[in-house]
Design brief:
Blueprint (H helix, E strand, L loop, with lengths): L21 H12 L17 H11 L18 H13 L3 E5 L2 H13 L5 E5 L4 H10 L2 E5 L2 E2 L6 E2 L3 H10 L6 E4 L6 E2 L3 H9 L4 E4 L23 E4 L1 H4 L7 E5 L6 H11 L6 H39 L3 E3 L8 E2 L3 E6 L6 H10 L6 E2 L3 E5 L6 H19 L21 E2 L5 H6 L2 E5 H4 L26 H13 L13 E5 L1
Parallel strand pairs: 2-3, 2-6, 6-8, 8-9
Antiparallel strand pairs: 1-10, 3-16, 4-5, 7-12, 9-10, 11-13, 13-15, 14-15, 17-18
Helix pairs in contact: 1-10, 3-10, 4-5, 4-9, 6-7, 10-12
Length: 500
């Protein structure tokens, strides 16, 4: 059954007791028992630890347990973890939920290994997080990349139009599924209900990297969730927009197009056999907080943020806050996208200058910086951010004599809907010998490394793709703008690895 959009907040009417936090409560019982630890971890419930830091870590160390009697095991849960996962599935509208302690990264890799055998094709939105590409690499899959749509004001990539994906499904009937990112890092979300229907008519699952949308569908003021729109497998970073600890995420399954048995087997292979129980418990508590308090807090927070965003945008002279467009079905009100009106300063520079004002943005790109708010923001906290934005606006107004930035659009992806089959699969390219080449001489060669402007962690080039003059131009422009490249073979970005 497909849930109606934006109605997950009604799940609290189910028979499940969401005031309970079974895994957290089991860890509290473990702490109270004060049994002598003759097992891992080596800090022995905090008895042996760095003295200077013990004051900070003591309470966590007491519940930093391992799989033992009375706690349950992540890889074959039968009581407390199983109960906590069932409560999470109920809260988020899934048939089954897996807890993840390796972030959405481990969820994406697990999804790839579950869906694809070596040589299998799968239709993949090109602007995906690097973990998707790594998963496909390990699985030996042959992705068919589909170029994303571009939002016209911010120039940010989003899901390609349905017609292009439908054509890709028709042209590639052996594809094992469709894999998209929705929302993108900036909170832009498309209506994917028709896409889910198209996938199901083709007999394949729709997989959604919803890392930045774990709160979606939890209140009428937010965009609908992927699960409520018919997605079959959804990866969420519960730590990003909800209240779990860093690295704690969830993987949700709906219906039966994805084998839960195989997915569980795969996750048992790629997640640690010594998972962090504090992280797992934080997922249990994030779910409880969301259902008991968070859903009502979201409503008030959105009202405060939207009221202040609209008034602030009218006051700004040099900056602007994106308020949505016809090209985007849903906008996450907990994210503000800020840019220079005349583009005389890049998003990379804005990030640095906001940092100097003691205001740390979440993301930047050639045009924009992104601010991320929590599900519970007070007026006074919002006003602190508003004051910083106004201060930055005044600083930029005083620089009107500056040299305008290059306004020509940067080529990051092919034309929307373009299908691209890499010259070599990610797996093949990863195992081929490679050599170093200067950027200009690399044009026409097959890339031998991942070129990764970060954040948001979307590869400009992956191993196996043909390097074009546009790629080289974009790398140079990004570097000149101050972009950060994650783990390049050459920090200067003057050379790349290409396949021999």
């Amino acid at each position: 059954m497909v849930l109606k959009a934006s109605t997950h907040h009604e799940e609290s009417h189910s028979s499940m007791d969401h005031t309970a936090a079974p895994l957290y409560e089991a860890l509290c019982s473990y702490e109270k028992s004060q049994r002598t630890s003759l097992h891992v971890p080596g800090h022995k419930d905090g008895r042996v630890f760095d003295e200077e830091a013990l004051g900070r870590f003591a309470n966590i160390l007491k519940i930093d347990a391992t799989e033992s009697v009375g706690i349950d095991g992540l890889h074959h849960p039968t009581n407390f973890i199983a109960d906590a996962q069932a409560l999470a599935a109920d809260a988020f509208g899934a048939d089954h939920t897996f807890f993840l302690i390796g972030g959405s990264t481990v969820g994406n890799i697990g999804a790839a290994l579950t869906l694809c055998s070596p040589g299998d094709q799968i239709i993949v939105q090109r602007n995906m997080h690097k973990s998707v590409f790594h998963g496909l690499m390990v699985a030996g899959a042959h992705p068919i990349f589909i170029a994303p749509s571009i939002e016209p004001t911010t120039k940010v990539a989003k899901v390609s139009d349905l017609s292009y994906i439908e054509k890709a499904l028709k042209d590639h009937p052996d594809a094992k599924g469709v894999w998209i990112t929705n929302p993108n890092y900036y909170g832009m979300s498309q209506d994917i209900s028709s896409l889910a229907k198209a996938c199901h008519q083709a007999g394949v699952p729709l997989v959604v990297d919803e890392a930045h949308g774990p709160h979606f569908g939890q209140a009428a003021e937010l965009p609908p969730s992927a699960l409520s729109q018919g997605a079959d497998l959804v990866v969420q970073s519960t730590h990003k927009m909800l209240t779990a600890m860093t690295m704690a995420s969830m993987l949700h399954v709906k219906e039966d197009l994805v084998s839960r048995e195989r997915l569980g087997q795969v996750l048992g292979m790629i997640q640690s056999t010594s998972p962090s129980y504090p992280l797992l418990a934080s997922l249990d508590l994030a779910r409880r907080f969301l259902v008991i308090k968070g859903r009502s807090q979201i409503k008030k927070t959105v009202e405060r943020l939207e009221k202040r965003r609209r008034s602030l945008d009218l006051e700004l002279q040099a900056l602007t806050i994106w308020g949505g467009s016809q090209a985007v079905n849903h906008r996450d009100p907990l994210k503000w996208i800020i840019s220079s009106k005349d583009q005389t300063i890049s998003g990379f520079q804005l990030l640095d200058e906001f940092y100097d004002l003691d205001c740390t943005a979440e993301i930047c790109d050639p045009r924009n910086v992104g601010f991320l708010f929590s599900i519970d923001e007070r007026d006074e906290d919002i006003e602190v951010v508003v004051a910083k934005i106004k201060e930055m606006d005044k600083k930029l107004q005083a620089r009107k004599a500056g040299i305008p930035a290059d306004k020509s659009d940067m080529v990051l992806f092919e034309k929307e809907g373009t299908l691209q089959k890499p010259a070599l699969s990610l797996h093949e390219a990863f195992h081929k010998p490679r050599k170093r080449a200067g950027l200009q001489e690399a044009v026409g060669c097959i890339c031998g490394e991942m070129v990764l402007p970060y954040p948001p962690g979307i590869p400009l080039l992956t191993p196996g793709e043909k390097i074009t003059a546009d790629h080289v131009s974009t790398i140079r422009r990004l570097k000149d703008m101050g972009a950060y490249f994650q783990s390049p073979s050459d920090d200067s970005m003057r050379t790349l690895y290409v396949l021999c």
